[in-house]
Here is the input.
Amino acid sequence: MFRFLLSSVPVRMLSFPVGSFKFLQRKEFALANIKIRFHHVESEEDSIKRYVAYFDREDIDHWEIRKAMNELANDDAVPDPVVIIAALKAARRLNDYALTVRLLETVQFKCGSKKKKIWPYILSEIQSTLFELGIETPEALGFDKPQLWCDGTDNFYNNYN
Here is the structure.
């Protein structure tokens, strides 16, 4: 298509002076002069209260719980046990057991390299709530290992005989 258009244009019109396209060049501008005028810093206590109030709403739905869980996962810290308890109760109010297990898996993942220190503390804090709501931990459900995990490949076929 462009070849056809160019073939119909005389050759003398295709030569342009060097400075004729200055209006098409990008103008440089500095981003260093932009100032941040307002940045709200929320304290940890205020954040905990906000999430607990959010999860304690009676009209909360599945999407809102997942949205709040994603926000918690994007934070730089592991959620407080009070927030985890409120999220678990909200998910059980909606009778969404899978969501409760995903929440616990997300908290485990947020523990990162300190999982051996942080996860037992969180479990000790939320254990009574887990028992009250009838929720098993991911380890009790076998989600801490891959689905087809076995001790060794040498005994793989012996397990099924």
User: Anything to note?
Assistant: The radius of gyration is 29 Å. The mean pLDDT is 81. The chain has six helices and no strands. Residues 44-133 form a domain with the Serine Threonine Protein Phosphatase 5, Tetratricopeptide repeat fold (CATH 1.25.40.40).
